Task: inverse folding
């Protein structure tokens, strides 16, 4: 059973199921195009994910048959009704980038569950997630060049680090739509599932993730994100050691090894 959280907005429903947060873009009448209320909800969700020790990971999905059509071209970047976001941005100027996982990504894993189209901002936010499930009818694309715009969500940097350069250039310069099967072959997503099953598959991944030691997962995630190809290997390996060795002295490390010895499931406490 999902439990509603008090940080939801009209365009972004935020719930939890045990240690799993579920963030649902909730503007299906506009193909989940970004709105101010949606951005505020996502921003609140990622900050709550970091702050709540009971939450282990999050799933991001969309209501209806479209994950996200990106910026609302009819209303502009804010998607209309920009009052609350303008107030919040006085203290958090990059709130919109935090919402879209461009800045200040949560320290815990985010799993993406896509049904239907994920275009422009819908594919840009994908690049800030860690594990990605798509329905067989999903379609990805970074189409800003077709509208005289620029993909400021980070795609000109992140996409070419996540898939081969020539493929990234094709998506960015041609604005070409990419099928779920192509995205899987390119390594842009992890799994393709039957239509209507993306969220269920993401929940299974989240449950599997929750069986592992949270401090281990968070340290590995930090290393994956920060120690990329732009770092010389020797420097990256030194940074990996700095992250990894402290994990061996945690209570969870002792519990994991003891549970293996005693042939039982471990009971991790995040310490």
Result:
């Amino acid at each position: 059973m999902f439990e509603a959280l008090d940080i939801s907005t009209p365009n972004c429903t935020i719930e939890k199921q045990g240690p799993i947060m579920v963030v649902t873009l909730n503007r299906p009448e506009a193909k989940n195009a970004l709105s101010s209320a949606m951005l505020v909800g996502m921003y609140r969700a990622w900050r709550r994910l970091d702050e709540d020790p009971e939450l282990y990971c999050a799933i991001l999905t969309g209501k209806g048959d479209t994950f996200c059509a990106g910026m609302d071209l009819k209303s502009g970047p804010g998607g209309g009704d920009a009052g609350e976001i303008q107030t919040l941005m006085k203290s958090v100027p990059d709130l919109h980038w935090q919402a879209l996982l461009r800045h200040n990504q949560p320290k815990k894993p985010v799993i993406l569950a896509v049904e239907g189209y994920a275009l422009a901002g819908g594919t840009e936010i994908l690049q800030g997630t860690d594990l990605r499930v798509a329905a067989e009818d999903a379609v990805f694309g970074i189409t800003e060049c077709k509208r005289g715009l620029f993909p400021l969500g980070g795609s000109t940097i992140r996409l070419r680090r996540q898939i081969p350069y020539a493929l990234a250039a094709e998506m960015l310069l041609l604005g070409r739509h990419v099928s779920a099967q192509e995205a899987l072959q390119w390594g842009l997503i992890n799994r393709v599932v039957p239509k209507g099953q993306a969220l269920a598959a993401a929940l299974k991944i989240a449950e599997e993730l929750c069986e592992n030691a949270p401090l281990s997962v968070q340290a590995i995630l930090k290393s994956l994100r920060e120690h990329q190809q732009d770092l010389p290997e020797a420097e990256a390996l030194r940074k990996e050691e700095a992250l990894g060795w402290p994990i061996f002295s945690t209570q969870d490390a002792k519990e994991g090894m003891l549970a293996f010895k005693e042939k039982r499931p471990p009971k991790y406490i995040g310490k």
